[in-house]
Every structure is written in structure tokens, then in C-alpha cells.
Amino acid sequence: MYFFEKLGDTITTKGKEVSGKAKDLAEIASLKSQISTCEDVIKKNYIEIGRRYYEKHAHEPEEEYDEFCRAVSNAKAGIEDLEERIKKVKGI
Q1: What's the alpha-carbon Rg for the chain, to the nearest Å?
Q2: Between the CA of residue 76 and those of 16, 26, 28, 50, 58, what are the distances in Å?
């Protein structure tokens, strides 16, 4: 009987360890998800800061931002050209 009692105790102990580790993994996954949410908030706000800066300073940006503002302006012009081409293809 000692063998089966020891086996039962071992299984119970191991079960608790596995359960504890599973709980830890679930908590880590939840925390990583919260980190990801925070990073998304940061990215969205960085984008909004950049958009607002561009709108205010696109025509006279500080030298440090000139390259980026020019790239945005060029991309916007490219979008306009492509939209015109789409209208032509559609016959509008």
C-alpha cells in the first residue's frame, strides 16, 4: 500500500505544480496582452502627434523633420495621382 500512497502523493504534488505553472503562464499571457495594448496606445498617439505636426509645419518644417514631411507630401501627391488613374479606368 505504501507504493500507492506515495504514487498518489506524487501525482497530487505534480498536479499542483502543473496547475501552478499553468496559472503562471496564463498570468504572463495576460500581462503580455496588456503590454501590447499599451504599446498600441503609444503607437497611435505617436502617429497622431506626427499628423498634427505635419499639418502645422508641412510647409516650413524644422530641418530635422524636413525629409519626413517631404516624404508624406510626396506620398499624398502619389495617392492623388493614383486615384485619378482609377477614375479614368472606371470612366468617371
Answers
A1: 29
A2: 59, 44, 42, 15, 12
Mind listing the pLDDT tens digit for each residue in 29-43?
999 999 999 999 999
Judge if 38 and 80 occupy the same domain.
Answer: no
Q: How far apart are CA 63 and CA 67, in angstroms?
A: 8
The amino acid that residue 2 corresponds to is: Y
pLDDT in tens, 57-80: 988 989 999 999 999 999 999 999
Chain center to CA of 50: 17
Strand (E) positions, 1-92? none
44 and 82 within one domain: no
d(CA 79, CA 46): 23
